[in-house]
């Protein structure tokens, strides 16, 4: 078992032990490595100024791209696959056995790469503060395609904000950099992979700071307030650690955890990553269901549903930036237990279930039974979400998903809804309805479902159903909407569903 994490940065290996390993990647790059091209702005994963590329060893291509021009790699060869992430909410202990490339690492021998040169030629920068993040997001896009469309560029740059230039020149720069080399051409995988192979099967244990130790972390974290970290190499060890540390936080994507730490001063008593456990990152289509591993990223989940659940694609497009989806996980979205989590209404109407594994073995819980109250889960202290089983809608079922938010993209929902209906001869044979943002947990609407079953497909029917639905929910007022606004949405969305399918 190791007491350090191995992180390559721009081709150079670093063995990082506690307490440094508890820093965010962005702070380590700026304050320790003096790689100041990585900017710290929001520290919430919103603006993309801190974007870097993280390469992980993968034996198969797993690349999310909106373009059909994705270039396959040679199967079976261990390669480093690079994805853009927000370094402000990624911690060094999450990055064991990875290769991080920053904006300083793109230009070799003082020669700018095409994306950097195009940003200069196309006047894609004014103040320049956001520019490194845009460049790294573009480089990440070119890992997946050599000939992006305007749509590809807009999707790839969704997580990057510019405050002064406007986006036309940035998009133009991205489209002109078609001879951008893959990171493999700048940093051949072989030497880095060989170095990683010596350590990748090791478990990692980092001790937390003791009260007697002097504070040595930037950002104001105090000594004696950091819990330990464990990266197990098998599921049994993970379960045992969780049972011994009931308040352990599973830090997989850290898209929420990083914000808690940066903005709320949150300190976990213990932390664990599941990256060392084989099989938990898989996403498989099997026997009419999608099987999603407990550490599978939202990007991999999105890639898997694109061809089989097209209705979910717009929701995933709006869900978050590429940087967020490359880090966050579906299991994390479920376990976070937010009543406005964007994936939950879909999971509720498809009757998804969760495979929970603990000391006593494995059990399966329907997702509708998993939530016992606000932030209360049917999850024992020793249990982990090891798999999500999602029965896929059949060809004779109609699925519609709705998300209401103040901004169209990358915003927390005010209200969410899902409907899955089977119909014949102009009548509703069966329907499942789930709403989010109207109660402490996502709700199925049994009275509304019962009313609609057997009824004719007519506007008047769904208008009456909306009134019933309004009586089944109990929303509150908050910064994203009033109680009355959500009640009206709960009523109106059923008529919207009727118009969409009619």
Annotate the secondary structure layout.
Blueprint lengths: L3 E6 L2 E6 L7 H8 L18 E8 L20 E8 L11 E4 L1 H4 L7 H8 L9 H12 L7 H7 L11 H9 L6 H4 L2 H9 L6 E3 L21 E4 L3 H10 L4 E2 L6 H8 L5 E3 L10 E4 L2 E5 L4 H8 L6 H8 L2 H6 L2 H6 L8 H6 L3 E6 L2 E6 H4 E3 L2 E2 L6 E8 L5 E8 L10 E10 L2 E10 L6 E2 L1 H7 L6 H14 L10 H19 L1
Parallel strand pairs: 1-5, 7-9, 8-9
Antiparallel strand pairs: 1-2, 3-4, 3-5, 6-7, 10-11, 11-16, 12-13, 12-16, 14-15, 17-18, 18-19, 19-20
Helix pairs in contact: 3-6, 17-18, 18-19
What does this protein look like?
The chain is α+β, with helices and mostly antiparallel strands and 502 residues long. Among the domains are: 4-197, Ubiquitin-like (UB roll) (Roll), CATH 3.10.20.30; 204-272, Uridine Diphospho-n-acetylenolpyruvylglucosamine Reductase, domain 2 (2-Layer Sandwich); 417-501, CO dehydrogenase flavoprotein, C-terminal domain (Enolase-like, domain 1). It contains 19 helices and 20 strands. The strands form 5 sheets. A 5-stranded mixed beta sheet has the order 2-1-5-3-4. A 5-stranded antiparallel beta sheet has the order 10-11-16-12-13. Strand 1 and strand 2 form a beta hairpin. Helix 18 (459-472) runs antiparallel to helix 19. The longest helix has 19 residues, at 483-501. The radius of gyration is 23 Å and the shape is globular. 47% of the residues are buried. The model is unreliable at 60-75 and 211-224 (pLDDT under 50).
């Amino acid at each position: 078992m190791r007491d350090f994490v191995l992180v390559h940065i721009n081709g150079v290996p670093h063995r990082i032990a506690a307490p440094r390993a508890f820093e965010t990647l962005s702070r380590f790059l700026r304050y320790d490595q003096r790689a100041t091209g990585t900017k710290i702005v929001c520290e919430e994963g919103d603006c993309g100024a801190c974007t870097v590329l993280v390469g992980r060893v993968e034996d198969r291509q797993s690349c999310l791209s909106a373009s059909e021009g994705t270039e396959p790699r040679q199967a079976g060869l261990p390669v480093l696959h690079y994805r853009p992430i927000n370094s402000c909410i990624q911690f060094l202990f999450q990055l064991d056995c990875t290769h991080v490339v920053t904006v300083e690492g793109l230009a070799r021998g003082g020669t700018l790469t095409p994306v950097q040169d195009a940003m200069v030629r196309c006047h894609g920068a004014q103040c320049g503060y956001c520019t490194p993040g845009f460049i790294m997001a573009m480089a990440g896009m070119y890992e997946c395609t050599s000939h992006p469309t305007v749509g590809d560029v807009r999707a790839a740059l969704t997580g990057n904000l510019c405050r002064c230039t406007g986006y036309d020149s940035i998009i133009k720069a991205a489209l002109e950099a078609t001879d951008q080399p893959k990171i493999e051409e700048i940093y051949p995988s072989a030497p880095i992979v060989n170095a990683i192979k010596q350590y990748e099967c090791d478990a990692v244990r980092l001790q937390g700071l003791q009260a007697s130790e002097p504070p040595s972390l930037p950002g104001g974290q105090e000594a004696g307030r950091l819990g330990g970290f464990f990266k197990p190499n098998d599921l049994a060890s993970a379960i045992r650690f969780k049972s011994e540390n009931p308040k352990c936080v599973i830090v997989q994507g850290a898209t929420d955890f990083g914000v808690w730490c940066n903005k709320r001063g949150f300190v976990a008593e213990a932390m664990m990553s599941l990256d060392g456990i084989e099989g938990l990152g898989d996403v498989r289509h099997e026997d009419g269901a999608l099987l999603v591993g407990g550490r599978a990223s939202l990007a991999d989940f999105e890639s898997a549903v694109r061809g089989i659940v097209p209705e979910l694609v717009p929701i995933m497009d709006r869900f978050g930036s590429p940087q967020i989806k490359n880090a966050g996980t579906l299991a994390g979205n479920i376990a976070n237990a937010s009543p406005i989590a964007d994936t939950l209404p879909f999971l509720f109407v498809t009757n998804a279930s969760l495979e929970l594994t603990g000391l006593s073995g494995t059990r399966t819980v329907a997702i509708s039974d998993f939530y016992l109250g606000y932030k209360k889960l049917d999850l024992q202290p020793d249990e982990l979400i090891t798999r999500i089983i999602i029965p896929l809608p059949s060809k004779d079922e109609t699925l519609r998903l709705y998300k209401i938010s103040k901004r169209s993209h990358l915003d927390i929902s005010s209200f969410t809804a899902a409907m899955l209906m089977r119909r014949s001869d102009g009548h509703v044979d069966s329907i499942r309805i789930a709403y989010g943002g109207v109660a402490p947990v996502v709700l199925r609407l049994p009275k509304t479902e019962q009313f609609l079953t057997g009824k004719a497909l007519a506007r008047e029917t769904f208008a009456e159903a909306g009134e019933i639905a309004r009586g089944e929910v109990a929303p509150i007022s908050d910064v994203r909407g009033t109680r009355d606004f959500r009640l009206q949405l709960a009523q109106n969305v059923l008529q919207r569903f009727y118009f969409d399918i009619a």
